[in-house]
Protein: NADP oxidoreductase
Amino acid sequence: MTTIGIIGAGHIGSQIARKAVELGYDVVIGNSRGPETLSDLVNELGPHARAATAAEAAAAGDFAVVTVPFRAYRNLPVEPLAGKVVIDTNNYYWERDGHFPELDKGEATTSGLVQKHLEGAKVAKGFNHINFADITTSGTPAGTADRRALATASDFPEAVELVTRLYDEFGFDAVNIGPLDESWRVERDRPAYGVRQNAAELKENLGRAPRTI
Ligand SMILES: NC(=O)c1ccc[n+]([C@@H]2O[C@H](COP(=O)([O-])OP(=O)(O)OC[C@H]3O[C@@H](n4cnc5c(N)ncnc54)[C@H](OP(=O)(O)O)[C@@H]3O)[C@@H](O)[C@H]2O)c1
Structure:
């Protein structure tokens, strides 16, 4: 049995947990306020899910998903995620997160900053350009015509492999952007952001993305 540690239990965290449990994963999920605030969610998810602190969720996961507001990335626990694949769903909304000048100037990427903070982890961008509601509803079996595709990026091939496999189980084709330095191509407000697209369309949209917006 594979356990996914999920840090962040909001729109995206809870949806990934729902689909993961449906697929047979065990899930340990945490937020900032404490496990006691997640009793409704874990009751809904059933016996393959439990609530924990963020650090406990990180430690319990064979791999992890971090899905907190971007501004909180420096609070993510480092030590329990070291050596693990960490799927980062974050997007930068300066209106919500405050300004990060290196992102405003196009000198960094959101997932690149998460990777710098999570020393020793293998960060992969994932699930950042799909609306939370679609995670449980828009997947289809492999080989379906016009199957929806999602992008990933990582400096670690094994992280790309894991995300590719997970996307497929969730019902999506994967498109590998390359290293995290290139992951701006799927950040907020680029052509690939938020729209439903198949793999060919996603590749085209990634290719025509502007570096800054
Ligand atoms: N909503 C979407 O459709 C969507 C789609 C793709 C990507 N994203 C991106 O994914 C990320 C999460 O989005 P969301 O919509 O799921 O956000 P959300 O609904 O606001 O949920 C955020 C979650 O993060 C938790 N959290 C905040 N600070 C934390 C910390 N320091 N340690 C542990 N947990 C913490 C919150 O816990 P508490 O409530 O206890 O504070 C909450 O459970 C964002 O960067 C967002 O831009 C969102």
In short: The two ends are 43 Å apart (CA to CA). The helical segments are 11-22, 39-45, 54-60, 94-97, 101-104, 110-117, 157-170, 199-207.
